[in-house]
Design a protein that fits this description.
Elements: E1 8-13, H1 20-33, E2 40-45, H2 51-54, E3 59-62, E4 66-69, E5 76-79, H3 87-105, E6 109-113, H4 124-133, E7 142-146, E8 157-161, E9 167-171, H5 172-175, E10 178-181, H6 190-194, E11 205-207, H7 222-229, E12 236-240, H8 247-260, H9 263-266, E13 268-273, H10 279-287, E14 294-298, H11 304-309, E15 312-315, H12 319-328, E16 332-334, H13 343-351, E17 356-358, H14 361-364, H15 369-378, H16 390-419
Parallel strand pairs: 1-2, 1-6, 2-3, 6-7, 7-10, 10-11, 12-13, 12-15, 13-14, 15-16, 16-17
Antiparallel strand pairs: 4-5, 8-9
Helix pairs in contact: 1-16, 8-10
Length: 420
């Protein structure tokens, strides 16, 4: 037990493309709360699924949602719902909410997920509070948390005027006390790949390996899963292809292939409709002749339970989905979305095996898809699936933070005693 136990943790998660950031953040928070249920968390996020946090008794300060349009060559940020406002006005408002929330909450620790300075650097005013308090009695531990694979960017330097009116700057990397990577170092070394291989950052970086929102022992039984999804007790193929513009062509080609090789009659095919998929595309899928032999379901949390009981999963290669496939030992065909600096392509390649096949979108319409589907179905499930443990990660994080607080408190007291 440390001398000081923290009571409040402020968590920022931007979430502008899909839903993965929210689930990753939830996994870490619930991993910590297993050991410290007394800690209050305040999540500040533009997530479209705040209910997953509310369900766990976690308070959310909902920011106006921003989306990154990944269907165009030049990604463009825009307001997801408040379409009558320009993006600059939305970010001004978001930043005010963030600062007011931080000042109200008075956290003992701050965790920033993914973007080190926040979306469009909206966390810089809060980071400046860390800089102003650094080493003082009101200092707090600052944590960065990421999935490992990201777009390369140099660490930012923030200019400021010091009391002697010289122009100087702050290195953002120096402000962080901990940098947690939810991936294996063998797969990605974030310092070498993205942070300039800075020697001063290396002691702060810790690789926890992959995380999932459920550990293996928490997965539902087959009967519970079928009831929850309203499915028959039949062999199941799960299809989840996100919302990118190619989803219509990919999904229809996949269903046509299933029909040609007889799977639509032998299996129940479940197609998950992404909550961000435009209504026109969703309507075309539902009304298509092939769609009449398919069970469409809207987005539901914890799809991992259905992944666990499916004979085949066809999906994108997002962080959470790939980890859930590895967790359950499921057989899968991965079709990476071509965005995010090659993030999904790289992740898919590191997961490739006999039972997990990877097909790029460019290859998808050229390969013998029927042969690949039958080959993967003929494989055995992995006998000993991966065991990812969010509770071990949560324990390591809270121990780090509270040890930091205890050491900081001791140093502050020592400095006070010397001054008096």
């Amino acid at each position: 037990m440390t001398d000081k136990q923290i009571k409040r943790i402020f968590v920022y998660s931007h979430n502008s493309i899909g839903l993965g950031h929210s689930y990753r953040t939830l996994a870490v928070i619930t991993g910590i709360r297993y050991w410290r249920p007394d800690i209050d968390f305040l999540v500040v996020s533009g997530t479209s699924i705040p209910e997953i946090f509310f369900k766990e008794g976690i308070e959310v300060m909902k920011l106006p949602s921003i989306k990154l349009d990944i269907d165009h060559d030049r990604f463009k940020l825009q307001s997801r719902y408040l379409t009558g406002f320009d993006v600059e006005t939305i970010f001004d408002f978001r930043q005010r909410i963030i600062v007011e929330s931080f000042d109200f909450f008075k956290p003992d620790a701050l965790i920033i997920e993914h973007n080190m300075t926040g979306q469009m650097s909206e966390m810089i005013p809060v980071l400046m509070r860390k800089w102003m308090r650094k080493g003082g009695a009101s200092d707090f531990p600052l944590v960065h948390m990421c999935r490992g694979i990201m777009s390369w960017t140099p660490l930012l330097r923030i200019p400021y005027q010091n009391p002697r009116h010289r122009s100087e700057s702050i290195n953002i990397g120096e402000l962080y006390d901990f940098m947690y990577v939810l991936e294996d170092r063998e797969i990605i070394d974030i310092n070498k790949m993205f942070l300039g291989n800075a020697p001063e950052l290396e002691p702060k970086i810790r690789y926890f390996g992959k995380i999932t929102n459920k550990v293996y022992e928490e997965l539902q039984s087959r009967e519970e899963t079928l009831v929850r999804f309203g499915l028959y007790d039949r062999k199941t193929i799960l299809v989840s292809l996100g919302r990118k513009r190619e989803v219509l062509g990919v999904c229809l080609t996949l269903l046509e292939t299933f029909g040609r090789i007889g799977l639509l009659d032998d299996y129940q095919v479940v197609v998950v409709l992404d909550p961000y998929l435009d209504r026109t595309t969703a309507g075309l899928l539902r009304s298509h002749d092939l769609g009449r032999k398919v069970r469409f379901v809207s987005f539901v949390p914890d799809l991992v339970d259905l992944i666990n009981h499916a004979e085949l999963v066809v999906s994108r290669a997002g962080y959470n989905t790939v980890n859930e496939i590895l967790l359950t030992g499921a057989k899968a065909i991965l079709i990476p979305e071509p965005h995010g600096g090659g993030e999904q392509e790289l992740r898919a390649k590191t997961s490739c095996s006999e039972r997990i096949r990877v097909i790029t979108e460019d290859e998808f319409f050229q390969v013998d898809l029927g042969r690949i589907v039958l080959e993967v179905l003929a494989c055995a499930r992995k006998a000993s699936p991966s065991r990812f443990d969010k509770y071990a990660i949560g324990k390591a994080i809270i121990d780090d933070i509270e040890n930091w607080c205890a050491n900081h408190s001791a140093c502050t007291q020592e400095g006070f005693n010397e001054a008096h």
